């Protein structure tokens, strides 16, 4: 599933094409993806000027001068295509601009979503209401994480994946950050001391920023809007590298936890 870096990369790729442009065509090509596409999407967005693009957790935001914000989620296999030669059967939403540009939201597995809300009510959007802070924002720091984990006996990996604690983190980047910080994924969250939590916050930021710089991670379906693949997967420390050397010289191991694969090194992660 595209995680925070992939969504951030997508938004950055869309911004030069959409920001400031007037939408001359808004064409949903089916009634639903994972759930129904708003029936008034075409009416409310056709003719509108895009005033800004952003991201919240794993969602992209496209705001217009009519006070509306379209919220998209890429699901398992979604991606935006810029100026496709032809519109394909898996292109479920097509946008065209007054500059003659075309964008298509492609989602073969149809696990993504499109919503439309009033811009001044974005924070009340149900998927956003209980989200924790952004991991790249100032609010996500050692003091915050220490307070959130105090008394928690659950494993730190599961706690970092809890979107109510921190928004946007997924399996790949949590595995990578825990390895960088030298913390075992099974460690009880409330037992990790302040100094190690500080290292973890720094590692989360470093991993996410490196992944964004690399255009995200392409494992199966993900591609940037310009068609380029994300190459952060070539820099993985542990993810998907079972039996290979960890940067510390140990051996990467894999175990299944909660339906996900966890990759870690017992030599350096304690």
Automatic annotation (TrEMBL):
Its EC number is 3.2.2.23, 4.2.99.18. The active site is at residues 2-3, 58, 260. Binds 1 zinc ion per subunit. Residues 237-270 form the FPG-type domain. It comes from the Bacteria. Residues 2-112 form the Formamidopyrimidine-DNA glycosylase catalytic domain. Keywords: DNA damage, DNA repair, DNA-binding, Glycosidase, Hydrolase, Lyase, Metal-binding, Multifunctional enzyme, Zinc, Zinc-finger. Signal peptide: none annotated. SUPFAM superfamilies: Glucocorticoid receptor-like (DNA-binding domain), N-terminal domain of MutM-like DNA repair proteins, S13-like H2TH domain. GO terms for molecular function: class I DNA-(apurinic or apyrimidinic site) endonuclease activity; oxidized purine nucleobase lesion DNA N-glycosylase activity. Belongs to the FPG family. This is Formamidopyrimidine-DNA glycosylase. It comes from Sphingomonas arantia.
């Amino acid at each position: 599933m595209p995680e925070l870096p992939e969504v951030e990369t997508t938004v950055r790729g869309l911004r030069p094409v959409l920001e400031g442009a007037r939408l001359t065509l808004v064409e949903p090509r089916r009634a639903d993806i994972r759930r129904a596409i708003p029936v008034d999407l075409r009416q409310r967005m056709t003719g509108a000027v895009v005033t800004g693009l952003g991201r919240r957790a794993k969602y992209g935001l496209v705001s217009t001068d009519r006070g509306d914000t379209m919220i998209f989620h890429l699901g398992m296999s979604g991606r935006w295509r810029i100026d496709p030669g032809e519109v394909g059967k898996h292109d479920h939403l097509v946008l065209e601009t007054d500059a003659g540009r075309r964008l298509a939201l492609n989602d073969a597995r149809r696990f993504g979503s499109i919503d439309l809300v009033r811009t001044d009510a974005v924070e009340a959007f149900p998927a956003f209401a209980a989200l924790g802070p952004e991991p790249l924002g100032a609010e996500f720091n050692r003091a915050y994480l220490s307070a959130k984990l105090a008394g928690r006996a659950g494993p730190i990996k599961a706690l970092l994946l809890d979107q109510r604690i921190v928004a946007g983190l997924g399996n790949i980047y949590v595995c990578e950050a825990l390895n960088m910080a030298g913390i075992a994924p099974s460690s009880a969250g409330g037992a990790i001391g302040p100094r190690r939590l500080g290292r973890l916050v720094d590692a989360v930021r470093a991993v996410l920023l490196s992944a964004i710089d690399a255009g995200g991670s392409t494992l199966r379906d993900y591609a940037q809007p310009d068609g380029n693949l994300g190459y952060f997967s070539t820099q993985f420390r542990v993810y998907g590298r079972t039996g290979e050397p960890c940067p510390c010289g140990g051996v990467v191991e894999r175990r299944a936890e909660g339906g996900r694969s966890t990759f870690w090194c017992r030599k350096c992660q304690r």
